[in-house]
Write a structure and sequence with these properties.
The structure is a single chain. Helix 3 packs parallel to helix 5 (148-157). This protein starts with 9 loop residues before the first strand and ends in a 24-residue tail after the last helix. The longest helix has 12 residues, at 214-225. It is globular. The strands form two sheets. It has a twelve-stranded mixed β-sheet. Strands 1-2 form a two-stranded antiparallel ribbon. Helices cover 26% and strands 18% of the residues. The protein has a domain at 10-166 and 264-330: Aldolase class I (TIM Barrel), CATH 3.20.20.70. It is α/β, with parallel strands linked by helices. The model has no long low-confidence stretch (mean pLDDT 91). The chain contains nine helices and 14 strands. It binds S-adenosylmethionine and iron/sulfur cluster. S-adenosylmethionine binds at residues 29, 35-36, 74-75, 77, 103-105, 127, 166, 168, 195, 197-198, 328-329, 333.
Length: 333
């Protein structure tokens, strides 16, 4: 379906154009990844606090005219919320929305990819920290028989493009698989992105010692796939990752470096939490309640403009100031 052209994005107080909204549709998850959530889960938000799909659509419809054109559906695990395809179809029909992506742990993707793509989903990021079934279950603390290659294949078959794979690298836990995961790019048209662990929130004793700097990751990847040269990232959805390609490879290897190189200067995004708070930075306390004003019929555009005027210059992650955040799943990662 043809959609109206995107409008000029609003700029924040530092001149950054904000055109990308990450929407968390649930704080719940069918995994308990060691770097993301406590084993027992979190105190889940009560249902009445969570935005309904109608409310999410109403918020996006009010913000799209301010130049938001790209959306990412995330969580928690978005695929466990019922009728996700209906939400995607409604969001895609909003004038100005040109691109919708999904972040998922991939468990339900083989069953859902075709339906989501038909509803208007453009692309997908699949989290896969290992290719070994026993290790996948140990990191996720759930054995749901997740098969990363099956998820990639289903996504590509459904026409989702690009397909990205996100790997959180942890020293002594899965860093010995960097080569195997990089090898996926030799045959598959995928972008395998290695993310530096952010040792924040309530995690299973993960510390700075588990962080593997991206330079080390790249040299390990090159040992497996041969020399890597700088490459263009995927045509759509280029974010903070830097991309490289092995000679003759179908896909690319990428790194995302929140710990060793910040990329706040080119930040183009804001986040909507499952309970309707607009967060202008992943970390810190910068958030504005959109849910209650929406429920009482107030206009959201002025609140959005004020939030952008207060968007911080950069996060304070390296100083470990995370603003009371317990898990990335609470803010959509
Ligand atoms: N459940 C979905 C998934 O796993 O892709 C979407 C939500 S998850 C919070 C979004 C992303 O955040 C995932 O790629 C996950 O690996 C990443 N993430 C979560 N905690 C992290 C941490 N402590 N350090 C680095 N990345 C993290
Ligand atoms: Fe769930 Fe994603 Fe967090 Fe893992 S990273 S616990 S899949 S929200």
């Amino acid at each position: 379906m043809l959609n109206a052209p995107a409008l000029e994005p609003r700029r924040d107080q530092f001149g950054r154009a904000i055109e990308y909204l990450r929407i968390s549709v649930t704080d719940r998850c069918n995994f308990r990844c060691v770097y993301c959530m406590p084993a027992e889960g979190l105190d889940w938000l009560p249902k009445r606090d969570i935005l309904s799909y109608e409310e999410i659509v109403a918020i996006v419809a009010q913000l799209a005219p301010l130049g938001l054109s790209r959306l990412r559906i995330t969580g928690g695990e978005p695929t466990i919320r019922p009728d996700l395809a209906q939400l995607i179809a409604q969001l895609k029909a909003i004038p100005g929305i040109s691109d919708i992506a999904l972040s998922t742990n991939g468990v339900k993707l083989p069953a859902m990819a075709a339906e989501l793509a038909a509803a208007g989903l453009d692309r997908v990021n699949i989290s896969a920290d290992s290719l070994r079934p026993d290790r996948i279950a140990a990191i996720a603390r759930r054995d749901l028989k997740f098969d990363p290659v099956a998820a990639i294949t289903a996504a590509r078959r459904a026409g989702l493009d690009p397909v990205k794979v996100n790997v959180v690298v942890m020293r002594g836990i899965n860093d010995d698989e960097v080569g195997d995961l990089a090898r996926l790019t030799l045959e598959h048209v995928v972008h395998v992105r290695f993310i530096e662990l952010m040792p924040v929130g309530e995690m299973a004793n993960l510390t700075w010692e588990h962080v593997v700097p991206s330079d080390e990751v790249l040299s390990r990847a090159a040992e497996a796939v041969g020399p890597l040269t700088g490459a263009e990232g995927p045509a759509r959805g280029n974010g903070p990752a830097k991309y490289f390609r092995a000679s003759g490879a179908a896909g690319t290897v990428g790194v995302i470096t929140p710990m060793t190189h910040t990329y706040c200067g080119s930040c183009n995004r804001v986040r909507l939490t499952a309970d309707g708070r607009l967060r202008t930075c992943l970390y810190g306390d910068h958030e504005v309640n959109l849910r209650d004003p929406l429920r009482s019929g107030a206009a959201l555009a002025p609140l959005f403009e004020t939030a952008l005027a207060n968007k911080p210059k950069e996060h304070q992650l390296l100083q470990m100031q995370v603003g009371g955040l317990r898990a990335l799943s609470q803010v959509g990662g």
